[in-house]
């Protein structure tokens, strides 16, 4: 357990106190969730004066949906011998704004009282960057799998490249709505550009097929290469969908001539 007691007390050791005060990280020491010490960075993070924060309840500054997580974290620190794992939480400031933070907690002795030292780091910019990347990836996945109308009532979904689980989930999220907008009766799933096929991807494709069928749209698979067919057989994947070697063959089956 760390100590703020006796010679190393924040109140008595001015040199140590100055170091803590100058840290960029926000440091809050709390006992039974009551704030007993906070450095200037911490006060800036919470958006109030240091003096006004002493004696306040820590959870007043944590967004409600993170309260149980914080309680579990504090309980883990107080009843364990090692620091808790880093967690992500959201600070709720008096002005209503929120700040995404990363938190590390340690058990300390503050003036003879068992307490928790929490070190908060503002990760708002990082979270915004992550959200932006997620949006970009989502848009890329949508562009990489366009539903292409080719004739009245018929569209093709060309599946191209390596399809990972996340991308397959994007298909499930967006393709049914897209085909419903197009008012089609037939959707051709063209496998000729797929690099990989595994049970996870096959499961998502099966779910897409079932969802589309519930919309009254018939599906056909084309372009199932021998290597993909062999993998499907080895994995025990069964597509209960009409299958053809090429898009023209599928169109001929639908009744398109010429």
Summarize this entry quickly.
Pfam families: PAS, STAS. By secondary structure, this protein is α/β, with parallel strands linked by helices. It has helices spanning 14-22, 40-46, 50-53, 67-79, 124-144, 165-182, 199-214, 226-235, 247-254; strands at 2-3, 26-31, 34-38, 87-92, 98-110, 113-122, 148-151, 154-161, 186-194, 218-222, 242-244.
> Residue share in helices?
40-55%
Class inferred from helices and paired strands: alpha/beta
Q: Please mark out the parts with pLDDT under 50 across 5 or more consecutive residues, or reply none.
A: 5-11
Radius of gyration: 29 Å
The number of domains is 2
Please write the CATH class name of the largest domain: Alpha Beta
Total strand segments = 11
**Quick check: average pLDDT?**
82
Query: How is the biggest beta sheet arranged?
Result: 6 strands, mixed
Percent strand: 25-35%
First-to-last CA distance: 82 Å
Helix run count: 9
CATH topology of the largest domain: Beta-Lactamase
Helix/strand order, N-terminal first: EHEEHHHEEEHEEHEHEHEH
């Amino acid at each position: 357990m760390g100590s703020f007691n006796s010679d190393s007390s924040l109140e008595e050791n001015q040199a140590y106190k100055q170091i803590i005060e100058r840290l960029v990280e926000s440091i809050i020491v709390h006992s039974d969730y009551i704030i007993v010490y906070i450095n200037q960075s911490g006060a800036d993070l919470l958006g109030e004066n240091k003096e006004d924060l002493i004696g306040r309840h820590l959870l007043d500054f944590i967004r409600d949906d993170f309260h149980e997580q914080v309680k579990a974290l504090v309980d883990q620190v107080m009843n364990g011998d090692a620091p808790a794992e880093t967690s992500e939480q959201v600070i709720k400031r008096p002005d209503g704004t929120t700040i995404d933070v990363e938190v590390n907690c340690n058990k300390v002795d503050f003036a003879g009282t068992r307490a928790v030292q929490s070190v908060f780091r503002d990760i708002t910019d990082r979270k915004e960057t992550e959200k932006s990347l997620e949006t970009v990836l989502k848009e890329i996945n949508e562009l990489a799998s366009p539903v292409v109308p080719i004739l009245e009532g018929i569209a093709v979904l060309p599946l191209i490249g390596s399809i990972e689980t996340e991308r397959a989930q994007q298909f499930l999220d967006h393709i049914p709505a897209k085909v419903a907008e197009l008012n089609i009766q037939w959707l051709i799933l063209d496998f000729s550009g797929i690099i990989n096929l595994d049970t996870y991807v096959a499961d998502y494709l099966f779910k897409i097929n079932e969802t589309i069928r519930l919309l009254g749209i018939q599906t056909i698979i084309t372009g199932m290469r021998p290597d993909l067919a062999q993998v499907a057989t080895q994995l025990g994947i069964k597509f209960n969908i009409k299958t053809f070697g090429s898009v023209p063959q599928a169109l001929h089956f639908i009744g398109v001539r010429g």
